[in-house]
Automatic annotation (TrEMBL):
Official protein name in the record: Proteasome subunit beta type-4
Superkingdom assignment: Eukaryota
Chain segments annotated as coiled-coil in the UniProt record: none
Key words of the record: Nucleus
PROSITE patterns for this protein: PROTEASOME_BETA_2
Gene Ontology cellular-component terms listed: proteasome core complex
């Protein structure tokens, strides 16, 4: 005598095999946590920024070229930003990261102006803030791929500082980033040591020679 089926097959019409599960369209069977992705290859980049102290202030200069890989793609990118009347910022490296940080700085500058409490960004304050931001991003394995040159007047005295993408920072009478750190920096140091009290015209001529 044949045994009766354990279940009625009509109830399984157009369904999965017994013991299997339904495949719902659009459903996810893999874990919902995906790996975080970071930009590890800058796309549009700028090269050297040079900075030099002179008797009454600082000179910072950079070209306006934006390179797409090895292609000289963009010819009019501004890489030196005026923060306020006493502070200026230059950047080499990934241009998108520079835009992100300049937008953030501009928001903070506007907030300070709205408070109208007499405080604002001085070169030293911006320099210190950048070291913390860049070191924090580096520690989170999501660095901003830039090197920054901060210059201006701090309490009436020339200020010039360097901060790279991992938060390494120092102050010096001459600074350079990118390829200029290898080529122009020794020449700038020699020019400053030869004439540490140079005028604005002399400093501008020196910077223009090496940019």
């Amino acid at each position: 005598m044949a045994s009766a089926p354990l279940f009625r097959t009509e109830f399984w019409r157009n369904g999965p095999q017994p013991g299997s599960i339904y495949n719902f369209p659009g459903g996810k069977t893999e874990p919902d946590i995906n790996p975080m992705k970071r930009t590890m290859n800058p796309t549009v980049t700028g090269t050297s920024v040079l900075g030099l102290k002179f008797r009454d202030g600082v000179v910072i200069s950079a070209d306006k070229l934006g390179s797409y890989g090895s292609l000289a793609r963009y010819r009019d990118l501004t890489r030196v930003m005026k923060i306020n009347d006493t502070t200026i910022l230059g950047s080499s490296g990934d241009y998108a990261d520079f835009q992100f940080l300049t937008n953030l700085i501009q928001e903070r500058v506007i907030e300070e102006e709205c408070l109208n409490d007499g405080f604002g960004y001085t070169p030293l304050r911006l320099f210190s803030w950048l070291t913390r931001v860049l070191y924090n991003r580096r520690s989170n394995f999501n660095p901003l791929w830039n090197t920054y040159i901060v210059g201006g007047l701090q309490d009436g005295e020339p200020f010039l500082g360097y901060v790279d993408k991992i938060g390494t920072a120092y102050q010096a009478p001459t600074v350079a980033s990118g390829y200029g750190a290898y080529i122009a920096q020794p020449l700038l140091r020699e020019a400053f040591e030869t004439n540490p009290n140079m005028s604005l015209e002399e400093a501008a001529k020196t910077i223009d020679r090496y940019v």
